[in-house]
Design a protein that fits this description.
Layout: H1 18-21, H2 37-40, H3 46-50, E1 60-72, H4 75-78, E2 81-89, E3 95-99, E4 103-105, E5 120-125, E6 135-149, E7 155-156, H5 160-166, H6 169-180, E8 186-196, H7 210-213, H8 228-232
Helix pairs in contact: 5-6
Length: 241
Amino acid sequence: GRGLDRRPNAVAERLTCEGCHGDRPHNDFLPANGKKKDTHALKVACQSCHIPTYGKGVSTEVDRDWTDPHFSPSACNGQGGWKPEEIHASDLTPSYRFWDGRSRVYVLGESPAQNGDGEYAFGVPEGGIDSLASRLHPMKEHRGNAARHDRSGRMNPHSTGTFFRSGDFDLAVQDGMAQSGMTGSYTIVPVHTYQSLNHGVAQEHDTLKCADCHVDSEFPGGPPRIDLVADFGYALNEPES
């Protein structure tokens, strides 16, 4: 298959929900009672409603700090070694982004752009509300840090082997630079990537309901998990009257 952030073994084909369930799985396209799940599915990915949380049962890594090493006896196939600080969390609410199946993913030698929070973007989904190929997908966000070459703006590769053996991130960066023919100073910067969510499908009674994303007289409830107007560009197609 093919995910947002996977590249070494990515292929053109993607496994999709529709491949097994069809594109009208709810049998309610434009029904008289107003429940229009299949209409929603034209612009909302199945995963958005059917994977309401992630990190269920087993926690998932959400942040990695290479400047905070910890020795682990089980690392390196039980030989022991140094690992970066890893922050895990459970039962997380996804972020949501439009995605058309393409993505901009950082590769070594590039100078990645910064996002609105000043983080260097390693994986960003392509698409938007006006793209016919895009649907709203749930996303995991992962943060960390990395070395950035001051002179060129390129990301500095670091030697994970050196880090695992020494726990010294500066030495790992220096070794990685030497292997890549780079010299000069660097700065530690925050990095960010989006990752697609496709596992952990919930039982039917645990899927999202209308009031989880919409709040009005028809769907009363608490604050919605997403702001459809401010964050995604949704607007009324006709006057409210």
